[in-house]
Amino acid sequence: MINPVRSAAKVHLDAGLAGPLFMLAAALLYTLLNVFVKLLGPEYRVWDVGFYRFLGGALVLLTIFGRRGNPYRGHNTRLLIIRGCTGSAAFIALVTGIRLLPLSTALVIFYSFPAFAALFSYFLYGEKIGLFEIACILAVLAGVAVLFDFQIAGGLLGQVMALTGGVLAGLTVTLIRTLREHNGPVIIYLYLCTMGLAVVLPPFALQPVWPASSWEWGLVLGIVFSSVTAQLLMNQGFFYCRGWEGGVFMSSEVIFTALVGILFLGDPTTWRFWTGGGLIFGSVVVLNRLKANQEGSRSRDSHQSRP
């Protein structure tokens, strides 16, 4: 099977531009995924949503990319399995939080994951971050809170599940740092779908819930294709940026979610939208420029050191 990361590496893209573009596109599609999940009726449990996402994702990937050789043959299979387990657990926790809490509240808590990614990067890889980068993470967290009016509503279980999703997502994006060196975005997501399917299949099989109308089938298909495309874009984006950096870029998802509410659900445009959105967007821009400057400095140093 063709390794998309290796193939993409042949095309020289500016990391300061490619990373944010991949992440912003993924964030937009994850916004659609959240909306599709929220629109499904309450009779769809987290196991049902997970079953359709993971089974549909695996079928799409195997159909498109599984024609040549063993599609599961990758580098560091053990870590691929671990990452698949943490990623699927993060999704299940987030969906549970979305089901138990208002969508905005669940995202406020879940988008603490860039901070957890920074912590895991430090403990696993000894990767230190500077004061400006810490300020970017804190500004994103503040922007998310302002955007959604600091309202941590809902029950304790929903809040715990959303926070658990954030912790697991932070660990998941950190592990991609190692996997992305020798694995493409397709095989990383294929393992996620496989591990997730192994978790949700038993409870789904005991009491399956099937789409009962064309509307529900449309939502299920929307969940499948938005999640597949978003995950592949995000995995590819991590080829150009670190886990916590990607998390900061991905925080634009909350801006897109707020825009959906304003444009389609009649939510008012308040100062909180402009202030919170400005903090998040500004942090993304600052981090992007800082990253571009660092890449430029390394390039100049490398050029000057040549004999």
Q: How far is the N terminus from the C terminus?
A: 39 Å
Order of helices and strands: HHHHHHHHHHHHH
Shape: globular
Q: Domain count, please report it.
A: 1
How would you describe this structure to a colleague?
With 307 residues, this protein is mostly helical. It has one domain (41-300). The chain is 78% helix and 0% strand. It contains 13 helices and no strands. It has helices spanning 4-9, 15-39, 46-65, 77-100, 103-110, 113-125, 131-147, 156-179, 185-206, 214-237, 243-250, 252-264, 271-304. Helix 7 packs antiparallel against helix 13 (271-304). The longest helix has 34 residues, at 271-304. The radius of gyration is 19 Å and the shape is globular. The termini are far apart. Residues 4-11 and 299-307 have low confidence and may be disordered.
Explain the layout of strands and helices.
Layout: H1 4-9, H2 15-39, H3 46-65, H4 77-100, H5 103-110, H6 113-125, H7 131-147, H8 156-179, H9 185-206, H10 214-237, H11 243-250, H12 252-264, H13 271-304
